[in-house]
Amino acid sequence: MFREFRMSLLVAAVCLGVAAWWGHTTSMGLWQALWLCLVLSVLEVSLSFDNAVVNAGVLKHMNAFWQKLFLTVGILIAVFGMRLVFPIVIVSVATGMGLVPVMQMALKEPERYSQVLTDNYPSIAAFGGMFLLLVFLNFLFDQERKLHWLGPVERLVGKLGKADAMSVIVAVTVLLCTKLFLPEAIFQSVLFAGLGGILLYLLV
């Protein structure tokens, strides 16, 4: 088993070392930085089990070339793109700062970086929420599914999938309904962020 995971363990050890050095050189502190990274590591591994099951189902229908591409480029995009690059881009867009200054702020001023992320949480949630909602809706409206956990209810809902772009229509409707619960001052930014999440899903 160790042979299978030795590269992963090596990368984890290096990352923990970098985290310890970063914590030591910032206001966070060495032990707090280590603890934070350990907790995030356990959380990431535990939450990735369901993705692994879904990915295995997708991979078995691919040829060797696409399997290799999925497990290299796809994983790099999912791990580094969405976990590291995407938050940097969000803060950059929200503050109007360049990517490099935002990266420096994340490394040297974590409290300020965290505050910017918190201040823009509604837009971030709208972007990711619309993307994930479309993933769920396309699964729900999939007429080719053989397994239905809720029996007649799911089969009835699945019939709605006969209408073109039904999942997008539902997602946009949900997004527009957020106007009922959000202050007018932030609805526009939430709307644009949500539409961005929908567009990204349609592109990929």
From TrEMBL:
Lineage top rank: taxon? Bacteria
Assigned keywords, A-Z: Membrane, Transmembrane, Transmembrane helix
Record flagged with keyword Chloroplast: no
According to the record, the signal peptide region is: none
InterPro entries linked to this entry: DUF475
Q: Where are the transmembrane segments?
A: 30-49, 69-100, 120-141, 162-181, 187-203
State the protein's name. DUF475 domain-containing protein
Q: Record the organism.
A: Xanthomonas vesicatoria ATCC 35937
